[in-house]
Structures are given as structure tokens and as C-alpha cells.
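Hi, here's the filled form for the chain we discussed.

Project: internal
Contact: R.S.
Residues: 353
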Amino acid sequence: MSELSARAKQILYAAITEFVATGEPVGSRTLSKKCGIELSPASIRNVLSDLEEAGYLQQPHTSAGRVPTDRAFRLFIDALMEVRALSQEEHARIRARFEEMTPGHNMMRETGRFLSELTGAVAVVVSPRLEALTLKQLRFLRTNPGELLAVLVMSNGSVQNRFISAQVSDAELTRIHNLLDDVTDGRTLGDLRDFFARKLATERIQQDQLRRRAFSLAEAAVSETPPTEADVVIEGQSKLFDRPEFSDAAGMKQLVSAFDDRERLLRLLDATMAAKGPTVMVGQEAGELGGGQLAIVRAPFLDHGRTVGTIGIIGPTRMDYPKVVPLVEATASAMTEYMDRSSGGGSGSGSMK
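And the returned structure, exactly as it came back:
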């Protein structure tokens, strides 16, 4: 079908918003009475028939009204909907919640719970891979003779500890810490692995005893941190089981299968890493996830300008996109601010210095 007419777009928009609100097939009489369309039911019915022929609507039963297809939702998201602007109170609530959060791994779960509360849907958070996080601070603590405890504080507040065999005096440790503060600033764990290996291979570092010692200790600390896979945190799953689309046994089975297949979820959410803002996958765009009846609204969050994780919402295709999209975007933005704030700008300052 060629470009939809203004009338066809108006009727399609009305059919989608009515279906999102009720979950019931939409008929011409409903649109005529409730949606302010100044056309007779017969005229509306003709347009609905054209939209069905073009693949934007489908009729579950001969005598029933029509429901939007994935193609209709895609057009709605890309061209028809008006995203609702968040109020100052909503922005303040989101910021306040992140200011209250305690750094560490549970922050991801707290974020998921909060986003689920905001949207009334299932929230998913892909935690940052450790090597993608900025190192906030690296300190060595003397423990037993000939042994140091390396303490790595990451930008999300998580802490990694490992023991390293080394004989170092307190005075030498102070000089090592000061030197490392200058070179670790703003670098990720993955970057630092490459940086220290590269520097230690140069003749200049080999001739500088302090730098060689400092970089050797640092390389041991970051290299003993194995590359990690991202973790998928899911919160609010019960919110979907009450939806009519999944109320029967088959629907519940599809949901359980969708949330159990975390590798697929991770692939779908990772696909947003290159995006600069929120993106939406509708129905079959997410493959067979949930039998093709689910949609994902997702947005990346950053750490010092690098995309390190993803926040998203999973719900039925008849999701309230104008409400959900800005909430996901604002939460991802607040998470980015939290990551940057937690790392303290990578200055290396703190109580352990």
C-alpha cells in the first residue's frame, strides 16, 4: 500500500490507542462513538478494511473487530505517537531514587525494581561487564609478609579483591599509588590490561625501576580479574501473568520460557549498545520471544561516555509506549549520571588513598 492518507492514519491511531486501553478488538462503531472521528461507522469500516488489506490490522474472528499488527505498532512508534513529556516531579523522583541507592551489584536489582514500579511492567537490566567499567581506584594493602591485597574499586561501586605476592615497603607503596593514580584515570579494566602489558614491553619502562614495579603490580591486579559475562536482572515478572494475553496455560508457558532464556534476552538487549537513545522491538522483531506477543523498550546507560549496560521494559505489544519510552530513557540517563558520579571523575581520591 502506498503512503497512508491522513484519514487512514487518524483511524489507525485511534484503533491502536483503543486496543492498548482495552485489549479488545476494535470495531467501527466504537471508533465512531469514542474517538471523535466524524465519519459514519460504514465509512470507518471501509478504512479499517483497507488497513487490514495493507497489513496494519487483523481480524481474530469474522464477526469481531480488528486488532493492530506488529506493522501497525511499528508505524505508531516511528511516526504517529506523541511521547509524553515527564513532569518535573517525575524527574525529581527518579533522580532522588538513584541518589539513595547504595553502590554495588544490588544497585542493578534496585534499578530494575524501581523501573518496574514506574511502568507497571517487567523491567530488565543488563549489568556492565567488569572489563567495560572504569576503574575508580586501585590500592595495594600489605597483609602477610611477601603478600599484598589488591583492591579494585569500580565505577559502579563494586569492589574486586585479589592477593599478589610481592615485597614492598610502605614508602614505596605510597609512591606506587601516586604514580598509578595518574595513569588509571578514566580507563576501563579492559583498557588497563592492554595499557600495562604494552608499557611493560618498552625499554623505557624497563629502565625505570619505580614505574616497572608499579606497572608490574598493576598488571597482576587487573590481569587476574577474569573477563565476565553480563548478567541479566529481571524484576516484576508477576505483572505480566495478570495480562489477558498470557492468562491461559499456553500464554504462561510462553512467558516462563521467555524469561528463562536469558541468553536470548541478553542478545536482544545487547543490540541496543550502539544506539544513543531508546529503541523499541515489537512482536516478531524480538523473534519468538513470548510467542511473538511481547515488546521490548530499551535504552543504554554509559560510564564516562562508554556504553556499558542496558535498561529495558518487557511487556505485551499493546504497551503504553508514549508513557513507557520516556520513563526508560529517563531511568537510563539517571543510571549514566550515577555511574559517572560514583567514579568521582576517575580522580583516584578517596578514603583508601
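Let me know if anything looks off before we file it.
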